[in-house]
TrEMBL record:
PANTHER family assigned to the protein according to its UniProt record, in alphabetical order: 4-AMINOBENZOATE SYNTHASE (PTHR40279:SF3), PQQC-LIKE PROTEIN (PTHR40279)
Protein name: Pyrroloquinoline-quinone synthase
Origin organism lineage: Bacteria, Pseudomonadati, Pseudomonadota, Alphaproteobacteria, Rhodobacterales
HAMAP family associated with the record: PQQ_syn_PqqC
Every Thiaminase-2/PQQC domain range: 23-233
Amino acid sequence: MSLDLTPMLSPARPLDSADALEDRLREIGAARYHDRHPFHHLLHGGQLTKGQVQAWALNRYYYQCSIPVKDAVVISRFRDRATRIEWRHRLEDHDGSETTEGGIERWLILTDALGLDRGYVEKTEGILPATRFAVDAYVHFVRDQTPLEAIASCLTELFAPNIHRERIAGMLAHYDFVNPGVMAYFQRRLTQAPRDADYALRYVRAHATTPETREAVCNALIFKTQVLWTQLDALHHAYVLGHIPPGAFVPEEMR
């Protein structure tokens, strides 16, 4: 399958308004979001083995369990109480609470169904080195860059619902080891991601008030798309091309 991965960015419009900023952000997502990656086309098209799907879910778990860590860091960047309160629900969305399951638990339901040992998944010892480096870089980014850039890096959520819908439909259609209950994580994100993205977009529109800060917002989104793309590059290199690094998970059919 040949995919056109040529960037679709149009000639840059001056970032002289909030509307121009939003237009540029949406162009970045259209050109750079990881729904364009060949690995996702294989996953959603039913062209991966169960072992390759296991490898994807195992590595993605490290990203999932790091999201509340990232969000706790974002909260720590703000003296503004209202922003902290708004951002706080994201921790519960992923970690859950004493009475409700969160996204991490829903992801573990997926890895359980794929036949991965839960203890092995939670230890994250079998993930790819590039997965660890990319995800850790994301946490470091929200810690080290400006609070505005930390929020802007979350704007990939603008584009998440489409990929979640494609994933739900594609995996249910093509893999007999997947059922609707297993896809609960993605079903829940269909409502959570738009809510979170709407807030982040309103925030950057209101607080990025100069061409320089708007450019920083755009670069933060580009950085986040690179974090996501790098993870899929590593999965494709290891589990499609067969170059699994020492210590990483090896699917049964590849042993």
